[in-house]
Amino acid sequence: MLYRKVPKNCDELSILGFGCMRLPMKDGRIDEKRAAAQIRGAIDRGVNYIDTAWTYHEGGSESFLGGALRDGYREMVKLATKLPSFLVSSREDMDRFLEAQLEKLQTDHIDYYLLHTLTGPQWRRLEALGVRDFLDEARADGKIMNAGFSFHGLPMDFAPIVDAYGWECCLIQYNYLDEENQAGTRGLEYAASKGLGVFVMEPLRGGNLGFPEAPPSVAALWDEAPVRRTPAEWALRWVWDHPEVVVVLSGMNDEAHIEENLGIAADALPDALTPEERGLVERAAARYRGIMKVNCSGCGYCMPCPAGVNIPACFEIYNKMHLFGNLEEGKDSYVMKTSGVLQRSESGYASQCVECGTCLGKCPQGLDIPLLLKDVAAELEGPDLEARVREMARKRNIII
Fold first, then answer.
1. pLDDT one-digit tens code per residue, 112-149
2. Are 149 and 114 contacting, i.e. CB atoms less than 8 angstroms apart?
3. Which of 236, 253, 272, 332 is the most buried (most CB within 10 A)?
4. Cis before 304 (ω within 30)
């Protein structure tokens, strides 16, 4: 296992982190025996960063992990969890959630405590509720050792959040298809320049970039490479090639995948890909984008929409659905990112578009945004939309 340092505290973290959002299941619940064996086995092999959150597995991930890390395993790792920002309505809520998480995780401190799913508006809302004071007090009391945030917003909102507090780390979505989406490469480099340890989620885009059967045009590219690698290995090595990345999280739940990831993490040094290999990944990304329905870079210049449509999120989800052909996953992701329930905000559905045309002159790609939003609404909305919203809220104990 290779390790990289967090700049501000010099913690040496395994470049592969174990994400506990997609643990193995049995009879509709976490398969605790199998999942505990997977986590302990990974720790025995050198993984020392474990990531969970309040909402993972409908609230069951933290409690499971508290038990799985008994027998000395808690002392072998840096443990990360997250404040469920979308459930916080007051300063008191922050303390209440942290105390409950310490109890569930059977620990007296959280090594890395992140504010979950930050966007620009979400950060401003938490800031007004006193989150700075909460973090300062929790750190002074030794309940939080390091503070950070996970980012799910527009590119323009990332740097202001980085600069808004003395964070030790941030968690961003990053892979070879998301160099411009959300924080993107610019955000990665900016956060690193400010001394934050940059942790990466979704290196395989929810597993989609790791499917053994890539689209034929992409698979043909991998066949050109002089060195044989699986699609997952190409994607992971591309992220680890960036020296700014400290930890890459993988939501591992299959023994074969864990073994593969551990093998890659044993020698995935930064700046190790050759120029030819980087060019190959760049060509693969271009071919994926050629399959996309909407040539949207996620820059956010079209925002804000007068009708409240979350245009970048609508196109990101629509593209992903067509890239990888998973309609059910696409609809669920659409609810999570556009219903407004998780963000404690108004909805941003594509169907809210009133064709005012305000966005048309702002898009660098020259997209006919109102026309494309009709396509998004036709495929991702429908009679089951509100039922999906209610189910998502139920799983996260959100009252709507």
1. 999 998 989 999 999 999 999 999 999 999 999 999 99
2. yes
3. 236
4. yes
